[in-house]
Write a structure and sequence with these properties.
Number of strands: 21
Radius of gyration: 28 Å
Distance between the termini: 47 Å
Shape: elongated
Structural class: mainly beta
CATH architecture of the domain at 155-330: Sandwich
CATH class of the domain at 155-330: Mainly Beta
Strand content: 25-35%
CATH topology of the domain at 155-330: Jelly Rolls
Order of helices and strands: HEEHEEEEEEEEEEEEEEEEEEE
Strand order of the largest sheet: 13-12-15-9-18-19
């Protein structure tokens, strides 16, 4: 595209140097008309009428189309960001023409927009099209008659900074065996009430000699408390059992949409615990992704049955968090 434009410019300069050869004004090689135009099919460049080289017109049209598409995409993102999380009714009139009212329970809904989620198979490219990926994430959602991929808000802490910087970890290693663990995050509703509509986490398959598998059955527990540290024997509001999953590539992204959203009050914490259980032969185990963080709100405990003996990841000397995300809408 640039090469065609440069070539056209050089052609114009050459023709300008020879424009006194008697060519008729307005024709190819002749001077432009006083109003800066030429005969049909020609373009006025440096006061000389020239015919754009093959591809030049197409490139110019493509550039114009790209600019329009880019402007439209930016406008759509601004429109979505302005209303994302606003409460709405099924009509969606509160959300604007280009956005959607995502009904999460009964007649309760929140304004959002459709989006393209990140593709975990392309680790060097981040395709999430939500307005601000430090605050929003594009995830599959199916509830209340709505189905598709939509922008949801994070429940904030340092997990918001994951972006594309995930890495795998082997949390179940002991000196001689693979033992079951529970890992968890505690996420505060520190900016006001929050409606939790779903969760997401990432599981790794075997890397090098590590005994990782992302196909093993496991359970997930979710509960809410007023304290920032998980209790030894919590009472889960929701327990999500998981059967064995089919084989997958290096990375499996798990998305759960809650059948009934969980309402968090300002100051409450939601805890999401994932079981990392080995297979019966203890040759493979679950490996969950991490991302940069403080380690203060991520926890682990030996064993997969209460009472648990939770400790922070920070206490083990690591500045990282489990990439377990709480998704929904604030307000």
């Amino acid at each position: 595209m640039k090469r065609a434009a440069i070539t056209s410019f050089i052609t114009a300069l050459l023709l300008n140097a020879c424009s006194d050869n008697g060519a008729v004004t307005g024709t190819e090689g002749g001077k432009c008309y006083p109003n800066g135009t030429c005969d049909a099919g020609l373009t006025c460049a440096s006061s000389i009428c020239v015919r754009l080289l093959d591809g030049g017109a197409r490139d110019a049209a493509q550039d114009a189309g790209d600019d329009v598409a880019m402007d439209h995409g930016i406008d759509a993102q601004k429109s979505c960001e302005a209303v994302l999380g606003t409460k709405c009714t099924k009509s969606g009139s509160e959300c604007g023409a280009n956005n959607t009212c995502l009904v999460v329970s009964g007649t309760t809904g929140f304004c959002t927009c459709t989006c393209t989620p990140d593709n975990p198979a392309t680790e060097l490219v981040f395709e999430d099209t939500c307005p601000d990926t430090t605050k929003h994430k594009c995830v599959p959602f199916a509830s209340g008659g709505s189905s598709g991929s939509f922008c949801l808000e994070y429940l904030g802490n340092s997990l918001n900074d994951c972006g594309t910087k995930y890495w795998h970890g082997w949390d179940s290693k002991t000196s001689t065996a693979l033992d079951p663990l529970m890992v968890a995050v505690g996420l505060p509703a520190k900016s006001g009430p929050f409606t939790l509509t779903g969760i997401q986490y990432r599981l790794w398959n075997k890397v090098s000699a590590e005994p990782c598998s992302n196909t093993l059955p496991h359970r997930v527990e979710i509960w809410v408390d007023n304290v920032p540290f998980p209790l030894p024997s919590p009472t889960p509001a929701i327990t999500l059992p998981s059967a064995s999953m089919p084989s997958a590539s290096l990375l499996r992204v798990i998305d759960f949409t809650l059948a009934m959203p969980i309402q968090l009050k300002h100051g409450e914490h939601v805890f999401i615990a994932v079981e990392l259980a080995p297979d019966s032969a203890k040759t493979k185990t679950m490996c969950i992704s991490h991302c940069a963080g403080t380690g203060e709100s991520s926890f682990k405990t030996a064993g997969n049955k209460p009472p648990y003996s939770w400790s922070t990841v920070k206490s083990a000397g690591y500045k990282r968090d489990y990439a377990i995300l709480a998704l929904g809408f604030g307000g």
